[in-house]
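Let us work through a complete example step by step.
Step 1: write down the sequence.
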Amino acid sequence: MAGEFDFSGRTALITGAASGIGAATAHWLAARGIAELVLVDRDEAGLAALALPVPARTYAGDVADEALWDRIEREVPRLDHALLNAGIANGCPIVDQSFAEWRRMLSTNLDGMFLSLRAALRIMQRAASGRSLVLTSSAAGVKPVPMTAAYGSSKAAIAHLARLAAAEVGPQGIRVNAIAPGRVDTPIWTTTDHFKAMAEELGKDAAKAALAAEVSPTDRLATAEELAGQIGFLLSDAAAGITGTVMVSDNGYSL
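Step 2: predict the structure and record it as tokens.
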């Protein structure tokens, strides 16, 4: 294995790794020679079920738990890459939004992103090993989408956090970018109250089709594997000149 998509000898951190985009990216990197993965998710059983063909350190816990990241900083000797991807989604009108639900969403999506980014950069700087990070934002952080006040606000903040981090660590040779997917056929969307209501009324397959029609002029949901390839490109040496960008991959939703 050689070339710009060769990750041999490197270590990568993935949060939200047990399913969806995180799991797909873990498999994508494993297929391209990654030497070790550091995987974080609340779903301990999901992490165990990944069955990756490369060594992996797994951490079951909440990304918004500072103690978890203190432990990871102590135990992980080096990182070359990171996909900071853990997140949750739900939605309702602002006037119906409870403060508890607002805080729950921002705790995971934004507090967790800050803590994981800080830890990843500290490890990279300590070991002089860092190359690149990708933060998962969302098209809802680019385009104002009704009924996504907490989710959209957290994802807009993540996009800006990626740009800020890129400006700070660029002189050290570390690249930071964000990816902003539209709707992807992953559990983050199929477990929302909105989708559950649609599935109860229409059936699961018809609800997915209706969801795709809602959010994409191409009438399709992206797959986790598609996003993994795009993330892999941003992490790879092929994207050596790309930093501080937010790559929108939403099937035209934000047009």
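Step 3: interpret the result. The beta strands are 11-15, 36-41, 56-60, 81-84, 132-136, 175-181, 246-249.
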